[in-house]
Amino acid sequence: MRTNFVVALLAGVAACSAPKTPTVSVDDMLADPVLMQSVLDRCAASPGRAGADIECGNARLAVEKQGAAEDAKKAANKQAEFERMRAARRAEDDRKQQEAEAKKKPFDPYSTPVNPETAPPKP
């Protein structure tokens, strides 16, 4: 009888306790930066509990993912800028080479001496 009372009391206490709120996932925090910042602020306010809190860990992971995404974006932009600069440099070099070739006299096999060392002196 006494055991039944204890079990009923524990069941009643468990039923009356506040339901746990679901933890916020990393993707939810990435989608909502305000939520991520509020979780980070809460974790910074209580550093002793932050190590065991799942949301604090998720917030740190979200920050790392966000940083990695920004780094990848910067690297892609840097590579695109490098490719644009390389294409511009090649175009400039090609233009200079074409100008230099246009300034050269074309080779004329009929007026060029056979042996340039024995060519007659020019008047």
Would you kindly provide a written description of the structure presented here, covering whatever features stand out?
Helices cover 72% and strands 0% of the residues. The chain has 123 residues and is mainly α. It has a domain of 83 residues.
Let me know the number of strands: 0
- What global shape is seen? rod-shaped
For the biggest sheet, the summary is: none
Work out the helicity level.
Answer: over 70%
- Rounded mean pLDDT is 83
Instruction: Give the radius of gyration.
Output: 39 Å
Record the SSE blueprint.
Blueprint: H1 2-16, H2 26-31, H3 33-45, H4 47-50, H5 54-103
Helix pairs in contact: 3-5
Notable characteristics:
mainly alpha, 72% helix, 123 residues
Please sum up the structure shown.
The chain is mainly alpha-helical and 123 residues long.
